[in-house]
Amino acid sequence: MSSNNVSRRHFFFGALLAGPVPAAGFGSVPSLRALGYKPYYDKLNVAAVGCGGQGGVDLNEAAKTENIVAMCDVDENRAGANFAKYPKVPKYKDFRVMLDKEGKNIDAVTIGIPDHMHATVALACMQRGKHVYCEKPLTRTPWEARLLFDAAAKYKVATQMGNQGFSHEANRTAAEIIWSGEIGDVTEAHISVTPGTHPTALKDFPPGEDVPSTIDFDLWLGGASKRPFSSYYAPYNWRGFLEFGTGQIGNWATHTAGPVQTALMLGAPISLERIFVQGESSVTFPTQAVVQLNFPARGKMPAVKVFYHDGPRSDDNHAYQVPGMENETILPPVDNLGDKGRGAVRNRPNGPPAGFGGSRKSGAPAGAPMGAGGPGVKVFGDRGPGAKPGVLTGNGSVFIGTKGILATSSRGEGVHLLPAEKWKDYKLPPQLLTRSPGHMLDWARACKGGEPSCSDFSISAPYAEWLALTAIALHVPGKLDWDPKAMRFTNNAEANKFVKPVFRKGWELKL
């Protein structure tokens, strides 16, 4: 293998490549102690920005092995249950005040807040030498993703994006099957997500209301443009608005596209184009859409077309018909590797995947379709009620190879070959990638001087960048030619307006 190939593999996978841990890779090494790393037996002092919802999940996951020393949330009602759970821990509404007052006692920070503030908080923490765990989709815009990529390298801190499926064995097994040549060269892949429960196709922002005393809405807005408060935005509907969220791309595609990213080692696309849309809006994301992304050849891997399907249902004409699989259930069940002699991961990274069991999420707009909006939301996906054989719907992905077809499901937590008969007696290839102890544990280990985590920003920021480009294509028509070096579209001035946020005065970001 050439040195170029080795460098490329380590750029994408780092310490995920199977092999011995380097002797200098642990926190007990004096030079690493000087950089702020700890021996594995010492607990990290962790602060949390965002303490309700998914931020609360991250906080409590970190608390299983580390110390919680500071908590911050702009909404004391939303964070109330977890605030009460840690009564002696200092509480703040402004993350900047928390970092100033508690900084000397903080090693690392979990960030679970709306998408538009991810980069702002993450950068502030990294600039103060704090390790960062930031929820997916990492950033709202491509420019912010590139900024965090550069920041992680500059400030030399341990990082992790909260796309928990990257830690699942099935995600890594899918890559190993593809690399083995089982389905030949992959020239086409399809990513699907369930319809969201956030608002879509709105024509205007909701009317203003009085701001409750329990929330600091100006801090909630952060760098976003100033506008009247509405209880409609929080705690969940913000993700449907272009200015705050990334729709189902941030909610689920960051998960379902994970196996595609890992297996195909994707960098930047050369072009992308929205080829179908329904419920278009200049305020929110559309109700349904399909985007095609074109990626160039990568080493020995050929150029590949990746299709993102936002919210298809079985009876939609635009739903992807997997060729030759008219009688097959497309997406596999999760944790289906046990019968192959591998025990899927010992525990689901950070709890069960969102969207299994229950009813429509409280607070979802009336008439919203069932979808994977978070805990307590029923998934009507490929294996759900009314699913149509041979059609890709639900949360998952499909790889079309020159010799066969492979599918993955949910957050990359299930994998099988198609047709199912081919999977029945299939023997898995040798392991090339190491297995994860769990997504949060992976990061905690990196914070203490261990090998980089599986979603270290060197890996996840380029991934987040092309996902953010896809979000732009959802509301800008026409083929968009992308120049990754210049970070601009070469043929569309309108699309370039969405590459970088317009920050309110005082909230600008720079390394």
Unreliable stretches, pLDDT < 50, 5 or more residues?
Answer: 1-11, 19-34, 344-385
How many separate helices? 15
Globular, elongated, flat, extended or rod-shaped: what is the shape? globular
- From the structure provided, what is the oligomeric state, counting identical versus distinct chains? single chain
Number of strands: 17
* Strand composition percent: 15-25%
Number of domains: 2
**Can you list the strand order of the major beta sheet?**
15-14-13-7-10-9-8-16-17
Mean pLDDT: 87
Q: Terminal Cα separation, in Å?
A: 36 Å
Structural class: alpha/beta
Specify the biggest β-sheet.
9 strands, mixed
Radius of gyration: 22 Å
| Percent range of helical residues | 25-40%
Write a structural description:
- This protein is of the alpha/beta class.
- The chain has two domains: 3-165 and 443-457, Rossmann fold, CATH 3.40.50.720; 167-431 and 465-487, no CATH class.
- Helix content is 26%, strand content 16%.
- It has 15 helices and 17 strands.
- The protein has a nine-stranded mixed sheet.
- α6 links the parallel β4 (108-111) and β5.
- The longest helix has 17 residues, at 457-473.
- The radius of gyration is 22 Å and the shape is globular.
- It starts with a helix and ends in a 15-residue tail after the last helix.
Give me some keywords for this one.
disordered N terminus; globular; alpha/beta; 15 helices; 26% helix; 2 domains; Rossmann fold; 511 residues; 6-stranded parallel sheet; 9-stranded mixed sheet
Briefly say what this structure is.
The protein is an alpha/beta fold. Helix content is 26%, strand content 16%.
